[in-house]
Amino acid sequence: MLRFVLALLLLVIPAAAHSTEAGWALLRDGAHVVLLRHAMVSGNADPANFDLEKCSTQVNLSTRGKQQARKIGALFGARAAPIERVLSSRYCRSLDTARIAFREEPEPFAPLDLLKTDPSEKAAQIAATMTEIRGYSGSDILVMVTHLENIVALTGISPREGEVVIVEPQGDGLRVLGRVTF
């Protein structure tokens, strides 16, 4: 059993490293849209009475999350084309990830907030995000900092905290071009 687990790890680790390297290769070329799940947090869920305007009422970045955001920014600076624009969920953990990583004030973009539970509101959020992605035609990188649920709804992929998913429009949805893990 132990040999099986070790063999499995040896197969998975190079695959993750390969996908990260392939992702960086794409990002060097620019002209891509990046969905970035916010960095690591210190909690599991926002309290029922949280206030979007008050970070103290929300789940926020942990110390490791702040370090992860700095690493994301340093690696983007060293290995990717310039960042043209940064859009972010209005949640503090997303805004802080963007501020720390890219050292600029992100544009708050409500459709990147945690998905609403009402099906029509959720569909409107996804549609607005898709419109933004489809409308992007820059030569550098558009970064959209958001949450797990949003990325899953848009791509079917469940990224780790601080993971990048590189996408492009395809038909009615998105095609995943690559991923970068930190």
TrEMBL record:
InterPro entries xref list: His_Pase_superF_clade-1 (IPR013078), His_PPase_superfam (IPR029033)
SUPFAM superfamilies with a match to the protein in the record: Phosphoglycerate mutase-like
Gene3D superfamilies: Phosphoglycerate mutase-like (3.40.50.1240)
Highest taxon, organism lineage: Bacteria
Signal sequence annotation: 1-17
Keyword Phosphoprotein recorded: no
Keywords assigned: Signal
Statement: the UniProt record of this protein carries the keyword Signal: yes
Name listed for the protein in its UniProt record: Histidine phosphatase family protein
